[in-house]
Specification:
The complex is a heterodimer of chains A (about 425) and B (about 450). Chain A has about 425 residues and is an alpha/beta fold. Chain A folds into 2 domains: about 240 residues, Aspartate Aminotransferase, domain 2, CATH 3.40.640.10; about 120 residues, Aspartate Aminotransferase, domain 1. In chain A, about 40% of the residues lie in helices and about 10% in strands. Chain A has 15 helices and 12 strands. In chain A, the strands form 3 sheets. Chain A has a 7-stranded mixed beta sheet with strand order 2-8-7-6-5-3-4, sandwiched between helices. A 3-stranded antiparallel beta sheet of chain A has the order 9-12-11. A two-stranded parallel sheet of chain A has the order 1-10. In chain A, helix 13 packs parallel to helix 15. The longest helix of chain A has 24 residues. The N and C termini of chain B lie far apart (about 50 Å). Chain B contains 17 helices and 12 strands. By secondary structure, chain B is of the alpha/beta class. The chains are: A alpha/beta (about 425), B alpha/beta (about 450). At the A-B interface, helix 3, helix 4, helix 5 and helix 6 of A face helix 3, helix 4, helix 6 and helix 7 of B.
Chain lengths: ~425, ~450
């Protein structure tokens, strides 16, 4: 599709993007340190998306018959190379990780209903699995007779070993009484609290313990950490391209390792292409705006204008977010919830205990207060204290760093919390 | 007769409102209409509004405003604006379709998604023993292909059986359809099969006919069909929609076809009942268990902007004389006129009488074209697009049992063009199609020898 418009005459093909220009649509008054939740999209990609949308509106029939499918295929080929998959058939494009979960879990439902799985067979998930995924497990697995086992992970966490240990215990529990573990659902980067999980090791453990299938929810991963699906070795892997990979909402890939089961996966919104393979089914689920799926080439152009491409972006985001997290922890006298090597482009920074964050809704109240009164956008995580902890840190801010962030964003946050601290404000005083 | 929409609450980001339904001088002018659709590709006779709909420039602009608000500060948008915007749209739709309560109205991407919701529910009923293996679902022979596949995926797979009711085409009256449906349903129920769900189109897609849904729903009730799902993908903005009068349990229509919304947005009406509480969106997210409408309002991070411009669309249609009712009437009158013009020019006929045409009409194509398969129809459509710059879908009418076919093509109309009329169409669009077909006939072209 459209290539880079910024060729300079002397033969060099890229100029670094003008970050100010590319993210000029971001509300300038806000310290936007929450790229993790909803991602971000540069102007040049938005503009490319609008070109695609216009093409559809101009002559939708022609677009449908002649343009849509080859353009989706182009995006899938790029993604295949990005994640080191073997075949493009293994790559389906869907709206988001939530949809990918519905696809995989609906297949689990059918396996229970057709007696391939027995009532009581288990699915294992991390306790910190994303809320929507847990609901999907209720809707598709528990409802069909499956048992859900949650792996409680420590937080704060200090090393991969702590996670590996807890996971091992859960696998044992899952296999007690001759139960079979049919599915392990493992986050690559948990959402709240945000921790990079040693997925490769956990997948290996699952294989050793004869877990049927492994689904890695890498919603945050692409553009944030390295993804090599062959190396990770799961059966299914999903990630959202609109979080850290500069795509507009919404586009995600679901990688399904080639196997007999691949033919049995279906998109839940059934249309004309039913039975033609998940990737083909997903490329037409009724009349919709598919433009977000079509700008992947333009996004590649964008990231390749940065020094080191997407790898350079990942590295700098990580270094910066750790630097800012350490700065904040120092300023507040707290700590990081996760060591630097387990941070991605996000970090968990402890908030001063005197803010009195005693519940999940306190976290929400504080977040809204920071947004409304201090123009700082950052999600707050509530951590239930252990018995016997003395003035524990129960609140953590999940700070993100993306290419548009500046150090001023984090100073603004630092100063906001310091003000709350100095004014003796606690969550109890904040209105609902 | 629906009343012109009151100007309810809506967002402040749209273009200045014009006066509604007051004096003729404030109605949208022809040149303004041309401007609103200036993005349509020049030179194409676009007589297929039925497939993918159309969206005026002022709505696209309103949509971009919503998209921008998300991009500017997505967290604030998510926490403070999105749900209100969706509720506003749902509320407007509720009164548009004469539903009792906004809780009955969910917004989804399209009719295809709505079918998945209803049919997945049927699948669970089989799986959980509420329905017995062999219990049946009824569908029309000409149901939309995506819906047929959804029945395969969720009903057949779960052990349900399918009763297919053949409807006549060409058709001459509602009575023909009612009689055929009654017969087909009774036959299907033979051997004491329980019929759990009937799926009935309000306006069939190919061939396109307005179905007497109210009567068919009544027949379903009389014949003990448990639930009725009306697939009215084309209906809103095209025919009068009153869900209470129609009396179905579920009713879906796409707002991006004939109601000027951008792709894509549809409503699924579910009459209040215990069953409605057990419907779920297949993409399960945080709101699972809070009711279909709330579930559908958040299915993960996505662009919901097309669902938020319904208030702006009402502003738009109210710039026309008679509002959406006026648009429907004029579209219908024009498409019938054009259909008759074409039938006269080609020596053929309409596939249904005018009163069974919505804003679309099936016009018989000259038999000399020898359309003898679905492939032929597609080839002809492509040829018209590529060589004559005419966009119109072609329907292949297979021979009925007992009809003698073979090489006897004299006067046999085996193909129909489904022409649409929307506010942006002009007479020239149809003259272009007329001349294209006349040219093909003159040149002795058949589907067999299309380049």
């Amino acid at each position: 599709m459209a290539s880079d418009d910024h060729h300079i005459p002397n033969g060099s093909t890229t100029t670094p993007p003008d970050i100010q220009f590319e993210f000029a649509h971001h509300d300038p008054a806000i310290a936007r340190i929450n790229n993790g939740s909803f991602g971000s999209c540069p102007s040049s990609v938005i503009s490319a998306q609008q070109d695609w949308q216009l093409k559809w509106l101009q002559q939708p029939d022609d677009f449908y018959f002649n343009t849509l499918k080859p353009s989706i295929l182009k995006a899938r080929l790029i993604i295949r190379d990005l994640i080191n998959a073997d075949h493009v058939e293994e790559i389906s494009i869907v709206d988001n990780a939530t949809t990918a979960a519905a696809i995989v879990l609906q297949h689990v439902t059918w396996s229970f209903l057709s007696s391939q799985f027995q009532p009581g067979d288990a699915a294992i998930i991390l306790h910190y699995a994303y809320g929507a995924i847990k609901k999907s497990l209720q809707a598709y697995v528990a409802r069909a007779g499956g048992q859900i086992i949650e792996v409680k992970l420590p937080f704060p966490v200090n090393s991969d070993e702590e996670i590996i240990q807890e996971f091992g215990k859960a696998l044992e529990l899952g296999r007690m009484n001759g139960r079979k573990i049919r599915l392990a659902l493992i986050d690559h980067i948990t959402s709240m609290p945000s921790v990079v999980i040693p997925v490769k090791e956990l997948v290996k453990m699952c294989r050793e313990e004869d877990v049927d299938q492994i689904f890695v929810d890498g919603a945050h991963a692409i553009g944030c950490v390295d993804i090599d699906v062959k190396d990770i070795g799961a059966d299914y892997y999903t990630s959202n391209l609109h979080k850290w990979f500069f795509c507009p909402p919404a586009v995600a890939f679901l990688h399904c390792k080639k196997s007999d089961i691949l033919n049995q996966l279906h998109h839940p919104v059934v249309s004309h292409e039913y039975g033609n393979g998940l990737a083909i089914e997903s490329s037409w689920i009724g009349t919709r705006d598919y433009s977000a799926q079509l700008v992947v080439p333009e996004v590649m152009d964008f990231v390749n204008r940065f020094d080191g491409g997407i790898d350079g972006i990942k590295k700098r985001n990580h270094e910066k977010v750790v630097e800012m997290a350490i700065m904040l922890a120092k300023a507040w006298g707290t700590h990081l919830g996760v060591p630097p090597q387990m941070c991605s482009s996000m970090a968990m920074v402890g908030l001063p205990a005197c803010l009195g964050i005693f519940s999940h809704s306190d976290g929400l109240k504080l977040r809204a207060y920071l947004r409304d009164c201090f123009k700082v956008e950052v999600p707050i995580y509530y951590r239930e204290p252990e018995k016997g902890e003395h003035t524990p840190i129960t609140g953590y801010a999940r700070i993100s760093h993306q290419v548009y962030n500046t150090v001023e964003d984090y100073y603004k946050f630092r100063d906001a919390v310091n003000k709350l601290f100095n004014d003796g404000v606690t969550c109890a005083f904040l209105s609902d | 007769m629906e009343d012109p929409q009151a100007n309810g609450d809506h967002n402040h980001n749209h273009i200045p409102k014009k006066l509604k339904l007051s004096s003729p001088s404030s109605f949208i002018s022809d040149s303004e209409i041309r401007q609103e659709f200036a993005h349509h590709q020049l030179g194409i006779a676009r007589i297929n509004n039925g497939s993918f709909g159309s969206c005026p420039a002022s709505i696209i602009a309103a949509q971009k405003q919503w998209q921008l608000r998300f991009l500017q500060q997505p967290d604030d948008f998510f926490f403070n604006h999105l749900q209100n915007g969706i509720l506003r749209s749902r509320t407007l739709i509720t009164s548009l379709i004469n539903a009792d309560h906004v809780d009955e109205v969910s917004i989804v991407d399209n009719a295809t998604t709505a079918a998945a919701i209803v049919l997945q529910h049927v699948g669970w009923a089989f799986a959980e023993g509420r329905f017995q293996k062999g219990d049946a679902v009824v569908m029309l022979h000409c149901a939309f292909q995506a819906v047929k596949k959804s029945i395969e995926a969720y009903v057949t797979r779960a052990g349900g059986s399918v009763i297919v009711v053949q409807l006549p085409f060409p058709v001459h009256s509602d009575q023909e359809i009612i009689a055929e449906f009654r017969k087909g349903l009774a036959m299907g129920k033979a051997h004491g099969r329980k019929v759990r769900l009937a799926i009935i189109d309000h306006i069939t897609s190919m061939p396109c006919v307005v179905i007497p849904v109210r009567e068919l729903v009544q027949i379903c009730r009389e014949e003990g069909v448990e639930q009725v799902f009306v697939d009215a993908a084309h209906a809103i903005g095209s025919v009068h929609v009153d869900v209470k009068e129609i009396g179905a349990d579920f009713y879906v229509s796409n707002l991006h076809k004939w109601f000027f919304c951008p792709p894509s947005v549809a409503f699924l009406y579910c009459r209040k009942s215990p069953i409605a509480l057990d419907l779920h969106h297949p993409v399960v997210s945080h709101e699972y268990g809070n009711g279909l409408a709330i579930e559908s309002a958040w299915i993960g991070t996505r662009d919901y902007s097309s669902q938020l411009v319904v208030p702006d669309v009402l502003d738009f249609v109210n710039r026309f004389e008679g509002g959406i009712a006026g648009i429907r009437k004029r579209n219908h009158d024009a498409v019938v006129r054009m259909g008759e013009l074409l039938a006269r020019a080609w020596g053929t006929h309409l596939g249904s009488p005018p009163e069974m045409c919505p804003s679309m009409a099936m016009v018989g194509l000259p038999s000399s074209l020898r359309i003898s398969s679905d492939d032929d129809a597609l080839k002809l459509r492509t040829h018209l697009r590529d060589h004559f710059e005419v966009e119109v879908p072609i329907y292949y009418q297979a021979l009925k049992d007992g009809e003698i076919g073979g090489d006897n093509w004299d006067g046999r109309v085996a193909g129909y063009a489904r022409i649409s009329h929307q506010v942006y169409n002009t007479v020239d669009d149809y003259l272009k199609l007329r001349d294209a077909i006349n040219q093909l006939v003159k040149d002795g072209v058949t589907c067999n020898n299309l380049p």
